[in-house]
Amino acid sequence: MEEGMRRERKFEICGKPFVPNKYRPNQTVCSSLECQYQRQLSNMKQWRNANPNYFKYKESQDKSWKQTCRERSLEWRRKHKEYLQLYREANKERHRVYMRDYMRQYRLKKKEDQNNKEEAGQ
Ligand SMILES: [Zn+2]
Q1: ∠ at Cα 43 (42, 46), nearest 5°?
Q2: What is the pTM of this model?
Q3: What is the Å distance from ligand 1's center to 101 Cα?
């Protein structure tokens, strides 16, 4: 294997640096939920751009196209929901820490205001 293959690269989407794994030499997107999801979306877009007439063609060929379309959209929504749930789970801890710091700042600010008021009153 060439030495250059093992050098550090950057993930698409998030730009995090990584050293390519020898078992996945073509990896360009990290395994985080967010990046995997973004990749899926962009794959879909690329495919649609490359096959602009696919859906029109299908429509003229398939009388139950509308039905298929509806099922696909339901399926997409279901998957999307799953993703959102996973995403929320993954971010729970982050959110908890954020809220804790937020409340801490809030209480500090309140206390400061209170002190300022008392000082002004004297
Ligand atoms: Zn990433």
Answers
A1: 85
A2: 0.40
A3: 26
Q: How confident is the model at residue 1 (pLDDT cuts 50, 70, 90)?
A: very low
Burial class (CB in 10 A: 0-12, 13-18, 19+), 34: middle
Higher pLDDT: 92 or 29? It is 29
Distance of CA 16 from the midpoint of ligand 1 (Å): 6
User: Taking the alpha carbons of 70, 71, 76, 78 in that order, is the dihedral positive or negative?
Assistant: positive
CB 30 within 8 A of CB 11: yes
- Residue 74's pLDDT band (boundaries 50, 70, 90)? confident
CA of 26 to the centre of ligand 1 (A): 15
Host H or E run for residue 12: none
Q: Report d(CA 107, CA 101) in Å as an integer.
A: 10
